[in-house]
Amino acid sequence: MERTYEAYESIPFARFCEEADLPPELRLSFRTFARAFFSDEADLSTADVLRAFHFYYLSHDHGLLYDYPAGDYETTLLAPIRAHLEANGVEIRLSSPVSEIERGEGKRFRIEREEYDWVVMAADIPGMQSILEQSAWLREVDAELVGNMLALRTSNGYAVWRIWVDRDVRAGLPTFINVDRKRLLDSVTLYHRVTDEASAWVEIHGGAVLELHNYSLPRDLDDDEEIRRVFLEELHHYFPELQGLAISDEVLQVRRDFPAFAPGQHALRPTPEVSVRGLLMAGDWVRLPYPMTHMEAAYVSGVLCANVVFRELGLREERISTVAPRGLLSPKRANAARPALQMR
Length: 344
Prior knowledge:
This protein is an alpha+beta fold. It contains 11 helices and 12 strands. It folds into 3 domains: 2-58, no CATH class; 74-154 and 262-342, FAD/NAD(P)-binding domain (3-Layer(bba) Sandwich), CATH 3.50.50; 158-255, Polyamine Oxidase, Chain A, domain 2 (Alpha-Beta Complex), CATH 3.90.660.10. α1 (2-8) packs across α4 (46-58). The longest helix is centred in the last third of the chain and has 20 residues, at 294-313.
């Protein structure tokens, strides 16, 4: 995988597509896939696209199968996870922000007057950088590590607008619809066909619950009202049957916390285990030895952190299964049909 980064990491994906002279239809397919990185093609490393393309498309049969709960995520996913953790002795502290990590006395680290031998930095990039900036002693221990982590950046931002409306789209459309972005709208989810709650609302009120997505905000578009206006304008363009719709409720989220997978960022990313003993890194912005990305990468980085702790305590490590590390066109694909199992 590192050879792929050596060859392609510095090449913006837009330039790669131009030099490959892709036909418009194939270019649209690649552009649609590139949206998964919440970036424009010009600000996206070709190596990261190849890694994700290998993982999601070429290495196993389930990479792009959508599997989602029928209820809302709080009820069906997050609450059961919290209950399971608490049943096994985990204390979860919500609304307890961490501003800095201090040196410990009896143990390695101190956070808010409590000491720990291991700390997993699992914040997003802005949160991680805020903690590092307040933890000056870490720069004294490893200035290069801290400097690289502070140089990581987020993508341009993204927007999700969920609207409860008085009419539905035309029949025969899939639940999740990608469109060729004009300025803002990247995709539309027919949310009332996904969750029981939204479906029940439509049964009572009629209409639809739609979720409009943008994966890379234009730099000149940062006003919430303007985002709503452009979303609606482009929704009408692709779905003219919705002209004149009435919105009875809405929720808009505009976030700027997704990692940038731009040329040059890969070399700055820390691995889960860094030079500061006991300080561990987890998230979709961490560099892994496996060809995975996004949610899968965040999960596996957490397992790698756990394995560091298990190893130090003399406990059995969790096995990590991943796809074959070589691509279909690689000249050396020995045992590629067998999942690659790696222990750290």
